[in-house]
Design goal:
single chain; about 625 residues; alpha/beta; Rossmann fold; GMP Synthetase, Chain A, domain 3; 9-stranded mixed beta sheet; 5-stranded parallel beta sheet; 19 helices; globular; binds adenosine monophosphate
Length: about 625
């Protein structure tokens, strides 16, 4: 039942949503603005205090050193992130607490306590060691969203190997490119994944991706199907390796600044960007935000709908919730399969208290209508958070009304971050009003600003510019694997700040609105895809001479991809050609990068220096003013 106070909140002229008093009263961090002030005025004191809440093998000598554009946190400190994810809880009364609750689309469920998870991670870590994997070695993980995927990640971290998870929705070309770029010694993969009841042949994709690759010494295959694919040379069975290995593996002593993982994301060039995170700062920062922003308590059940293939899955399915000793639900497959009410069914059945999801998921739920949430008891859901793309006011309001009972039991907040930042920088903490269409304020640790083309800060409220980060925090990425100059470019581009690539504005109260990307990176259903990557996939087809892709606004997915293609002589546009090019992109990158639309064109607009003007194509497509086109080729 909605009470009058809550309706008044909804009807406030400003459209603000005031957090329910019951929520505010019990939050762990009462004053984010004050915490933010402290984190900026004295970052060393602030982060040093947070770091002391965790276990270290040896203390640090110095909290922070900045040798622009590189920096270090907790210098000289020795630790291992898995000692905080696992060992710390075994002696603090959480050994028998559920750490991970995994759900399959077919209704299957597996629960892992901290004790059991620790044992499996240790076993698998020993298994990897027996294959010759050691500190600093790169291991690519191409796994469906399953406990085995998380165990593989943690086992790598345990022995100091650097994991690089490749989203299981990527295909042959993308997987191969990432294995090569990381020069991985071992690949951990599976025979199959499941989505919308369909089996995804991961083994087939793996076979294609590794063909003729010498760099890999071993491939570990998790065979979940009844019919087990035969093992090829170099291949080892996941379960066998686990069974053969002993149950304890001492955590490798890592320097705070030793690499934890590489996660490839899209940049402005065709080559994916291998964002590298480290053990020490990452564990401190991701844990801090989990505790203070997600506000997950000891007795809570937390559900993150992302995937281990994305940074959200790294930080907020695997690492931070385990460091905090939380119970995390995660589920393989689609959020509306096998029926449109399954999201609510999970919330009700597991008594989920805190959810982390994406606006695309909420829009999908909204499309099915309120009759579904109304069939379930959602009152356990105290806080619903989302990130990944702009949260449109309509989806926010619908979710607040039908999933949060208009504030009677729940609340919804947005937060902004990216692969590079490891954890959120902007967000609406549960203690301050939600302003629809605005992400929120700068969170502790993040010095955020908006600058113009010349790098000058924009102080005027509500004026758009480039969103920048002015100072590194512990969980910020350290480098781009194998391409340190790319990290330097990220920092150097303008005014000595880190350029996020997003366009944003800030209101007089310090609330930011993130409008979208300023560069040629697309955001499809919350997933970052580089225009250049899709273009190079298209151009690698023998029929294509040139290609350009743009993002088109889409009600459900935020953006969809439209490609413009010039064919080589001797090839003709046809329906078959469209299908062939889409299949090619699917094979080269994966289903998420397949253009929804392809248009054949005899020429593409270019600058005098020969660069394709995607901006002009986009303006033409959307009927907008193309802006400055004076450099256009005549
Ligand atoms: P990724 O590195 O794949 O996590 O993608 C990060 C990008 O997603 C950001 O640079 C933004 O463009 C977009 N993004 C993430 N969170 C939000 C949000 N809350 N609002 C608007 N855009 C977002």
């Amino acid at each position: 039942m909605v009470n009058q106070g809550q309706i008044d909140h909804l009807l406030q002229e400003s459209g603000e949503i005031i957090p329910p008093a019951s929520l505010v009263e019990q939050v762990y961090l009462k004053d984010h603005k004050e915490a933010h002030r402290q984190s900026i005025e004295n970052p060393e004191g602030f982060w040093g205090r947070v770091a002391k809440e965790l276990d270290w093998i040896a203390p640090w000598d110095k909290v922070f050193q900045w040798d622009y554009p590189t920096f270090q946190w907790f210098l000289g400190g020795k630790c291992n992130i898995t000692a905080n994810c696992l060992d710390r809880h075994l002696t603090s009364g959480k050994r028998n607490k559920a750490a991970l609750v995994w759900l399959g689309e077919d209704g299957s469920e597996r629960v892992y306590t901290y004790g059991r998870l620790a044992q499996l991670v240790n076993r698998f870590a020993n298994g990897l060691k027996s294959l010759g994997v050691g500190k600093g070695d790169r291991v690519v993980i191409y796994m469906p969203l399953t406990p085995e995927g998380a165990i593989a990640m943690l086992a790598c971290a345990r022995i100091g190997a650097i994991h690089s998870v490749v989203y299981a929705g990527f295909s042959v070309g993308a997987l191969r490119e990432r294995i090569l770029d990381a020069q991985a010694k071992v690949l951990i993969t599976a025979d199959a994944g499941y989505r919308r009841g369909n089996k995804v042949d991961l083994k087939g994709i793996t076979d294609g991706a590794v063909e003729g690759l010498d760099v890999l010494q071993h491939i570990v295959v998790w065979r979940r199907e009844d019919e087990k694919p035969e093992l090829l040379p170099k291949e080892v069975d996941f379960d066998d390796l686990m069974a053969k290995s002993s149950i304890y593996c001492e955590a490798e002593v890592m320097d705070s600044e030793d690499p934890l993982y590489i996660l490839y994301t899209s940049g402005t060039t065709g080559k994916p960007k291998g964002v590298l995170h480290v053990h020490g700062g990452y564990m401190v920062g991701t844990y801090y935000h989990f505790k203070t922003f997600w506000d997950v308590k000891d007795d809570d059940v937390y559900w993150c709908t992302s995937d281990i293939g994305w940074v959200v899955g790294h930080s907020y399915i695997v690492y931070a919730p385990l460091i905090a000793g939380a119970t995390t639900v995660f589920r393989e497959g689609a959020i509306d399969y096998p029926h449109p009410g399954v999201f609510y069914e999970v919330v009700e059945k597991y008594g989920v208290n805190v959810v982390f999801t994406a606006p695309t998921a909420l829009r999908m739920l909204m499309r099915y209508g309120e009759s579904y949430p109304q069939q379930y008891d959602l009152r356990s859901m105290r806080l619903l958070t989302c990130a990944g793309e702009p949260l449109n006011p309509e989806a926010l309001r619908w979710t607040y009304e039908f999933l949060c009972g208009n504030g009677e039991w729940g609340h919804i907040v947005d937060n902004w971050w990216q692969t590079e930042t490891g954890a959120p920088c902007l967000g609406t903490p549960a203690t301050i009003p939600v302003k629809p269409g605005k992400v929120g304020i700068a969170l502790p640790g993040a010095v955020m600003d908006i600058v113009d083309r010349e790098g000058e800060p924009i102080t005027e409220p509500d004026k758009g510019g480039f969103l920048v980060i002015k100072q590194p925090f512990p969980h910020f990425y350290r480098t781009v694997y194998g391409e340190p100059e790319r990290q330097a470019q990220d920092w150097n581009t303008i005014s000595g700040c880190y350029l996020t690539g997003d366009v944003a504005l800030r209101d007089a109260d310090g609330y930011f609105t993130v409008v979208g990307r300023a560069d040629d990176v697309l955001n499809v259903a919350g997933h970052r895809i580089g225009s250049a990557e899709v273009e190079s996939a298209l151009v690698s087809h023998p029929a294509v001479a040139e290609a350009a892709v743009i993002g088109k606004p889409d009600e459900l997915r935020g953006e969809t991809i439209k490609g413009f293609v010039t064919l080589r002589m001797g090839y003709e546009p046809s329906e078959e050609m469209v299908a062939a090019l889409k299949a090619h992109v699917r094979q080269e990158i994966g289903p998420i990068a397949v253009p929804a639309e392809l248009e054949f064109t005899p020429t593409l607009p270019k600058t005098r220096s020969g660069k394709i003007m995607r901006r002009l194509l986009k303006a033409q497509e959307l009927g907008l003013d193309p802006g400055d086109i004076t450099t256009l080729e005549e």
